[in-house]
Amino acid sequence: MESVLAAFALIFDPTVLLTIFVASCLGVLIGAIPGLTAVMGTALLVPITFYMDPIPAIAAIVSMTAMAIFAGDIPGALVRIPGTPASAAYVNEAYSLTVAGHPEKGLGMCMVSACIGGLMGTIVLVVAAPQLARIAIKFSSVEYFWLGLLGLTCAAFVSSGSAVRGVLSMLIGLLISTVGIDVTAGTPRFTFGVMELMGGVNFIPAMIGMFALSEILRNMVNPQKERPKVEKIRNMMRGLGRDVKKFRFNIFRGGLIGTVVGALPGAGADIAAWVAYAFSRRTSKTPERFGKGHLEGLAEAGAANNGALSGAWVPTLVFGIPGDSITAIVIGVLILKGMEPGPVIFIKQPEMVYAVFIAFFGANLLLLPIGYVVIRASRFIVNVPRSALMAIVLMACVIGSFAINNTIFDVGVMLVMGLIGWFMEENDFPVAPAILGIVLGEMVEFNFITTMLKAKGDFSMFFSRPIAAGIGVITLMIWFSPLIIRLLRRIRDYRGGRKRLDG
Amino acid sequence: MKVSDILTGILFIVIGTYVVFAAQSFPAISGQPYGSKFFPTLIGYAMALGGLFLAVTAIAQKKVRPLIIVPGWLKSARGAGSLVLILATLGFYMVFVDRLGFCVTAFCMILVIQKWMGAKLLPALAIALIATGVFYSVFSILLRVPLPTGLVERLL
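ok -> structure tokens follow
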């Protein structure tokens, strides 16, 4: 209880509140301007949070992302360009409403479902994280090895259609994580004699490159279509209560689906929205109305992407395994701030954890008033000139990469990683597994080598403890799932064929 | 730029093979079967295998596709120019920022990119000036990042 009060004191400090407000406004801009994504915003925010105290830094990221994911719906609804990938799933739905002359109807629903979805995710985070931490406190290097591997596995298999591409992307990340002085033996690896690489590839410039620079490249290199003009938006409050009541079950279920998908490593708000939308369509009584301005799927997916945002923090805080690309960056920030994620943080700095929870509640509640104002003013934000935007964001990438260590070398790291990220996306390699590879590579390797040292090379050690064995079996099952599915299909086809022959 | 899976597959095989060979020179911890080279070796093999799989599946496909799909933007001078421009401005920044200082370099970068993307001169000038000022005051004055100094910074 004491730590809860301490957490409130930490959050309700005027500077922290101001930070949350400013970060929310920034999030709105980032989300509402097509071409700027929530992950990119996080990567660019980090150099600034670098100079803040831990709590305002974390609160800023939390409120910025929550607002950005919601605001991403706005350009989707108005000009049919999703502001962030998380809004892509239901862009047609929202835009159809605009074409029909009711942009305020879709946007109002986006706002409310985002708020409720986000709050639901937060409640799950508050309830589940401390419980999981109680179990995780007993974990040894074996469990952490498997957890890290499970995280990587999920990322590789969940985040794209093709498992091979996911795995290759993960390997790129793992390879990058091996650069620098090795964690176990102290050997420099793949440094090519470059002093700056001794400490490894710097994480923040790498993230800025992969998420921000690659986005600029994509935006500038691909020709842009003319955007439709945006009309004035009427009051969205009319009829909103009735709609929300009608689709309350969808919003609720969307929030839940989002939280679960968000908690899976490598799958973030964008995948959560797609899953929830598809689920809503499959279970709907009126699936034929989907895609034509029907609020059902919009409500469910709109809740899911904000739920995913909070859900992703569960594995991040408890195990130090990021649930999505945003929390992958957050882990870097937490470590910089002396809040090493893992179960110990729940005992050593409970007030910090509670402060994160409160920040989540605050940010999601703040969605309603800020959202209301933003939707009314949205047509001005959506029409920001692209030329100024790209130039300024590119400059922000440069200065952000520089500011962490004050070396030009990191600007080069950002450039190289940006090109890699861009090339990967162009060729349908998902970026999320690579990010998880960079974040988790060291952890997986360190825990593997430590376990092997303890076991003197005996592999059975990895299955010697019940939880470790359980996670290990799940991980291996995911790896072999493509083979198993193919085998099952063969058997079924064979049987089917025999039946036909018999008949 | 879309590249055929055959080429990306070969690229992964080459990188993977290099990684495996390079890893063999990492010293082992005495008396330990798993040391510095274990993980890189594993990653290298996996990469090469994945690359092989990618290439073989692409070759096995009946539909023959070009090795490199030259996308629309590369054919248009604008798209290709944009790529070159971003690389050039970043290169310009890295080489000249220590000599010219942050303000001049940043101002030039922001202005050039805006002009390239078709902005009018006066608004572009104004935005470049304001943006540079905001960046400088937030990072150099507020956050105390030691941005490279040049003539302008010494005058400020």
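The first helix of chain B runs from residue 5 to 23.
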